[in-house]
Each structure stands twice: as C-alpha cells, then as structure tokens.
Amino acid sequence: MKRLAAGVLTTALLVAACASGPPEYAGVVRSPAPDVSAATLPDVLAGGAPFRFVAPEDGLLIVHFGYTSCPDVCPTTMANVRSALELLGDDAERVSVAFVTVDPGRDSDDILATYVGYFTDGGHGLRTDDPTELRAVADAFGADYSVTGTAPYIEVEHTADLYAVDDRGRIRLTWPFGTRWQDVASDLVALLGEEKT
Domains in the chain, start-ordered, CATH in brackets? Predict the structure, then answer.
C-alpha cells in the first residue's frame, strides 16, 4: 500500500511539474551551473575509495555538508531527504545521497557510516583529514564551514544548503535550509524527468 501511495503521489508531482511548461523550482538555480565533477573525497562506506561528485547516469546526487553531532540542521535536512525519497517510489533508485562531514576530528569513519546509514541505504559518507582537500570541495559547491574551540567545547558552523548534482557533475539546484521536503520531492521529480530526455 505504501509503494502504491508513493507511486500515485509521484505521478501527481510529475503531472504538476509538466503541466505548465518549464518547472518552477523550489530550489535555487545558479547560472552558470557550478561544475563539481573534478571534486573528490574518500567515501568511508566504500573503504575510503575516492568518490567523485557526479550522479549515476540519468540520475541525481544529493549532497549536504554537516557533522554528525549537529543538534538540528543536519538531522532535519537528512530526515527531509529521506522523506522526499520515500515519496519518489521506484524513482528513488536513481538518486544517490552524499553527506560530507566538516568535523572529521570527531566524526570517525564508523560514526559517519552509522549516521549516513540511519538516513539512507546505499549512501556515501565522505570524510578527509586533509583540511585543504575538504576546503577545496566546499569551495567548489560554494559552501562554507568553521570548526573552533577544543573538546569538549567545540563550535561548528556550516552552510545549511542541500545540493542536487547531475550526471555531468553540475549543481542543478540548491535548496536553502527550511525548504519543505514535499517541495524537494517535487523538484527531484522534475529534474529526473529532464535527465531522461
């Protein structure tokens, strides 16, 4: 029943997205679209293998920069991603999710893998101890972060946006924090429809 409901809702979203010409996205379209295809980080869920910020063919990659002990923004964002993907039904298989930790000093491989696995199956937990490497990837996305203080008084600040990357490594949409998950789902349906053409 849940899969049937998701299919009906996906169809409704697709019809709404295609009803009046080009879709109007809830997310922000940046022009020209930033190219992040050259950026890589180790994927702890793939034994540390380099991960390129490129979606699977005809699919999308959702990316968020954060940290696992974030009290509000990160868990809310990741829960919204999970809800949006559930609404897509079978099309969710065309969407990958990557979480980049900006706090590698506390986010060990195991902690990060558990965190990502809680929100999505087959996700990517990206972590590096090289601050130059992490900064270069964040800059490619237009994201920022800072980690200050010493344990146990560490303060982390980070860009709260969510990014949709296509199979050429271009950022197609940026969703500000607070975008409703239903709107994220609607945008994903529209983007996936474009990827098929």
Answer: 2-196 (3.40.30.10)
